[in-house]
Known about the structure:
By secondary structure, this protein is of the alpha/beta class. It has three domains: 11-56 and 167-322, Rossmann fold; 78-146, Rossmann fold, CATH 3.40.50; 328-405, Alpha-Beta Plaits, CATH 3.30.70. 45% of the residues lie in helices and 19% in strands. The protein has helices at residues 11-21, 37-40, 58-68, 71-76, 85-97, 111-119, 131-145, 156-172, 187-199, 215-220, 243-252, 261-274, 281-292, 294-297, 313-326, 343-353, 386-398, and strands spanning 30-32, 43-48, 78-81, 101-105, 123-126, 148-149, 178-182, 204-210, 255-259, 301-306, 330-338, 357-364, 374-382, 403-405. The strands form three sheets. The chain has a six-stranded mixed beta sheet with strand order 1-2-10-7-8-9, with helices on both faces.
Amino acid sequence: MDNASGLPVSLADIEAAAERLKGEIVATPTTPAAALLPLVGTSLHLKLETLQRTGSFKERGALNTLKSLSPTEAKRGVIAASAGNHAQGLAYHGTRLGIPVTIVMPAQTPFVKVEKTEGYGAKIVLEGEDFMAAEAEASRLSQESGATLVHPYDDARVIAGQGTIGLEMLAAQPALDTVIVPIGGGGLIGGIATAIKNLRPDIRVVGVQVESFAGMKSVIEGRAAPTGGTTLAEGIAVKSPGHLTRQLVAAYVDEIVTVTEPLIERAIQTLAERQNLVAEGAGASGLAAILADNARWKGRQIGMVVTGGNVDARVLSSILMRGLVRDGRLIRIRAELGDRPGTLALFTQVVAAASGNIVEVVHQRMFLDVSVKNTEIDVVIETRSRSHVAELIAKLIASGFPTRLLDA
């Protein structure tokens, strides 16, 4: 397929970007996800952009832009509005190349993000209540200083840099017939789809958006849809897609699907537990799409871009613990015990004999729904599965301890 007339990025642009990036970023592997096969029921290959120095694909577009600057532009530096992966990619490679980088972040950006970007060598400006205000300030500073404004997705140089992922996937796994790519502003899928469709028009390119931020899908379908809210997929939480990127998506992307927050949470958990891979919400969204409807992907050779691994440790911990609860591997029960010496010891012996592991015990003695001669305890227990839970509760009841499962 020849590059369609008038589109902002061509295959030649992406191939030129690949030459600029050679040896300066990680040519990340596209590796078979063998551990996921029993769950997804199809051949799945993961493009591990989590292995980039800053943990995200955003380095590609940032570096391609930096290396496209004239000496005069490089001396003046670059500026961008970002509180995430784009900021870190620019900061890391800008510092490495000796190009000044200024990042404008909303005033309430979490300190850990500010510190991390600053640690890569960028100058940080905190301005505005939200991202739109930060963007406006970045634009003002760019005009004032002469620094080049680098948009996180609606920039042809950025798009071409991201498109190098498509070239690498085809070289590593030529048998692919489907490629799944997350969509926020559209820079990533715009670049990848341009590369793939010009080289292999038979490959189906599918975009994934979170339901609450399905801006690109709405634009392509010609309808208005509200966007906003909180999401685990912060990397694709974009209210308005790019003007350049929507042209490429309209030309080259076969389909856009949406996924829910619970599915993204489950996908993060699944990648961590089964594939030993830490992925941020956006990076796991492709797997969320597969988990949403396994049947539609059966028999296909799928490539999936795991875009980044920069997930907050507390969020990841919470997701994994909630996953244990959801799968019946961490439960809360309430049991009634006679208020006699040794009763609690007997209770714990029954749990241990049933292969349960007690994590926490809370006594309930003072409430009026319990007999004065009895006590209730709430117990958190690690278990193997839902069937194991039923077995454990049955053994407690049979041993004289009325027990019920509490809601997670």
